[in-house]
Amino acid sequence: MLLDGRVIVISGVGPGLGRGLALQCAKAGADVVLAARTEERLEEVAKEVRALGRRATAVRTDIRDQASCERLVRETLDAHGHVDGLVNNAFAIPPLQDLLDVDVAAVRRGFETNVLAALSLTRLFVPALVASKGSVVMVNSAVLRHSKATFGPYKMAKSALLALAQGLSTELGPRGVRVNTIAPGWIWADNLKWYFDLLATERGTTSRQVYDETAATIDLRRLPEPDEIADAAVFLLSPYARAITGQCLDVNGGEFHH
Q1: Which CATH class is domain 7-187+225-251?
Q2: Which controlled-vocabulary keywords does the entry list (predicted)?
Q3: The pTM is what?
Q4: Least CB-packed of 24, 52, 114, 224 within 10 Å?
């Protein structure tokens, strides 16, 4: 029960990693506040959290909207009275195009959600996090570790998010707040399963074959699942990581070494 009695706010709650983060935090003893734009999805995950015996507060939130984020903070404090952790998991995939060809306006929109919204939301929670000597976890990506074609805009956004986390760690550390990053690679969840099915159809093979070919590039020879990624965030939110801040923990099964 690494998070026993703690309140953790999670943005970008969806059927994959967002759900995994909520359930693993709850299993570790936390009450959770769930934020996303899709109310139906929020309630589905909230029911699963409550089935584990923990409190769940679902707040429909657009993290790009200041008023919406301010409402999230108010409802969190009204419901729970304090906040011990914030996980910035909300994400909008940037355009997957070469930097020489991409629409700069599309890159800018990606920054709005992936970087600037995370900054704004974190700043709103700072007073509560300082009061609890809490922790922030930014969900990043293994794109930090490569520069493959068409991934330039994606890497730009995630590199900026890493710089944001490190800068906040320096600024908030003296006030007792830790800020860390996790960088997942492949995540074996519904979106990726759909993509592998698509690739299998295009190649005239099976999704299992696509999986095996991908897993062959990973030291553990398998793709991490959402709860495995989430457990890394639980660790960083917990007292076991009380001397860790400003760090980026890769959670990729050994696909990249850093």
Answers
A1: alpha beta
A2: Oxidoreductase
A3: 0.95
A4: 52
